[in-house]
Design brief:
By secondary structure, the chain is an alpha+beta fold. 33% of the residues lie in helices and 28% in strands. The chain has 2 domains: 72 residues, no CATH class; 96 residues, 2-Layer Sandwich (Alpha-D-Glucose-1,6-Bisphosphate, Chain A, domain 4), CATH 3.30.530. The chain is elongated. The two termini are 35 Å apart.
Amino acid sequence: MLLIIVPYESDAERKRLEYVLEKYNRRLRLKKPRGAVIIASGNENDELKLLDELIARLGSEKVVAYRITGPVEKDPESVHVSFTLPIPPAEAWGALTAVMSRMRGALVSRTGSVRVYSLTTRGARATVKVSLSGHGEGSRGVAVFEGYGGRLSRLAEKFCGEVRVLGGGCDKG
C-alpha cells in the first residue's frame, strides 16, 4: 500500500493527475480521501498522543491512520544514444537545437560541450544531456535521456530519426 501525495498548482496539473488515476483505477484500489492528509513524524509517543487526541475529538470512524516507513524513492530510467553528424560541432549545435525544438524540448543549461534540455510529452518528462565533440570533419555526440513515464525509448528513437534525417548515424544502447 502506498500513500501518494501529489500537490498541484494548476488545473492542467490536476487534469494530468486525474488522467493517470483513471488509467489505474481498474487495476488498483484507489481512494482519494476527503479532509486533511497529515504526515506526522517525530517522537513515536507524540505521534500516538496526536492520534489519540484526534480520535477523542473526532471519533474513531473519522480518523484513519497508517504507519509509513518513509518516502519511496523512484530512480529515473535512462537511455543512452551515441550519434554522429557530418557537420562540425558549431553547426551541429544549431541542428540539435532545432531537433530538440521539434521534439518540444527547451534548453535548460549550457556548459562547454554539454547542453541540457527538458522534454515534456503527453506520457513522459525527460531531461536530455547532450555532449558533442569534433570528429574528423564532423561531430560525435552522446545524448542521455533520463526521466519517468516509460516512453524514453520512444523519445530516443525519435531523436535518432531526426539525426538520420540530418545525414548522421545513431546507436541506442
